[in-house]
């Protein structure tokens, strides 16, 4: 079984900087980490491989420094790593990103299973997994909490829904997005770290992927950030003291002032 895991680099700090012209996130490889949800996808891929055999491959679209995070995945037990890196990919929204990833995964075909984290913590869209599956024309299941059984042509998984769970049988090849409850990611082993230092991360650019330039980066992104801003906070705390009756009167006065209704009973 061949399993591909999609990982993304995200800022390791809350102080995210945006490009003044494109309004896209400025990504600094030195201050980036693997998207937390993707670490659970990495672990699940390794666990499935340990049970069924086969090969695991981590793939990412990002700046050259993303290679460091791919090597970390190898240190945790992933067999191979692929980095899709090209200036033409810059500024991509979820549609352009899923298009680029689909080209990279097509080069790895045949693939039995693709795993993604539920969402990226720097965007919170949770769109890449489903869009990637649609690009590849394969079934997908989101918010998977457990993979119960894996066979050569299907798997059974448990999906989280609003009021409980669903058990689903999914034909392979397929794509799953996983939540944090699915497992506990392992740390890189000493042997794994040593191996990751010597592993060759396969790099591919737009030309290697035979990509349509009009579908990449900002050009291929139908959604773009128009404006970003920090919300103004003007809240304040008021201490109210006195007897119960006095507190009630003061609270009523504060509410009336906030609502600006001059004491109306409406």
Question: What does the model show?
Answer:
It contains seven helices and eleven strands. The protein has 266 residues and is of the alpha/beta class. The chain has two domains: 2-215, Rossmann fold (3-Layer(aba) Sandwich), CATH 3.40.50.620; 236-266. A nine-stranded mixed beta sheet has the order 9-8-7-10-6-1-4-5-11, with helices on both faces. The chain has a two-stranded antiparallel ribbon with strand order 2-3. The N and C termini lie far apart (66 Å). The mean pLDDT is 90.
Distance between the termini: 66 Å
Mean pLDDT: 90
Number of strands: 11
- Main sheet, how many strands, which sense, barrel? 9 strands, mixed
CATH class of the largest domain: Alpha Beta
CATH topology of the largest domain: Rossmann fold
Instruction: Note the run of SSEs as H and E.
Output: EEEHEHEHEHEEEEHEHH
**Strand residue content:** 15-25%
The amount of helix comes to 25-40%
- What's the helix count? 7
The CATH homologous superfamily name of the largest domain equals HUPs
Low confidence ranges: none
Q: What is the gyration radius calculated from CA atoms?
A: 24 Å
The largest sheet has its strands arranged as: 9-8-7-10-6-1-4-5-11
Q: How many domains, as an integer?
A: 2
CATH architecture of the largest domain: 3-Layer(aba) Sandwich
Tertiary shape? globular
In terms of structural class, how would the helical and strand content be classed? Answer: alpha/beta
InterPro entries: ETF_a/b_N, ETF_b, ETF_beta_N, Rossmann-like_a/b/a_fold
Domain Electron transfer flavoprotein alpha/beta-subunit N-terminal: 22-213
Pfam families: ETF
Protein name: Electron transfer flavoprotein small subunit
């Amino acid at each position: 079984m061949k399993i591909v895991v999609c990982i993304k680099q995200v800022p390791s700090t809350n102080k995210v900087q945006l490009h003044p012209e494109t309004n896209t996130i400025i990504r600094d490889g030195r201050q980036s980490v693997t998207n937390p949800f993707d670490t659970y996808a990495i672990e699940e891929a390794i666990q499935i491989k340990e049970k069924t055999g086969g090969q695991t491959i981590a793939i990412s679209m990002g700046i050259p420094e993303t290679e460091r995070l791919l090597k970390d995945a190898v240190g945790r037990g992933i067999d191979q790593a692929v980095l899709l890196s090209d200036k033409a990919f810059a500024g991509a929204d979820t549609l352009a990103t899923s298009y680029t990833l689909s080209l990279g995964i097509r080069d790895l075909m045949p693939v039995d299973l693709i795993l993604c984290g539920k969402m990226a913590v720097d965007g919170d869209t949770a769109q890449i997994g489903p869009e990637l599956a649609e690009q590849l024309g394969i079934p997908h299941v989101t918010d998977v909490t457990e993979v119960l059984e894996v066979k050569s042509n299907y798997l059974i998984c448990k999906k989280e829904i609003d009021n409980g769970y669903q058990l689903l049988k999914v034909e392979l090849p397929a794509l799953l997005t996983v939540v944090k409850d699915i497992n506990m990611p392992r740390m890189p082993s000493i042997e794994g770290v040593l191996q990751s230092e010597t592993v060759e991360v396969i790099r591919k650019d737009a030309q290697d992927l035979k990509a349509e330039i009009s579908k990449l980066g900002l050009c291929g992104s139908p959604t773009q950030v128009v404006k970003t801003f920090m919300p103004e906070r003007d809240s304040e705390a008021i201490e109210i003291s006195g007897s119960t009756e006095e507190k009630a009167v003061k609270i009523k006065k504060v509410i009336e002032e906030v609502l600006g209704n001059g004491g109306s009973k409406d």
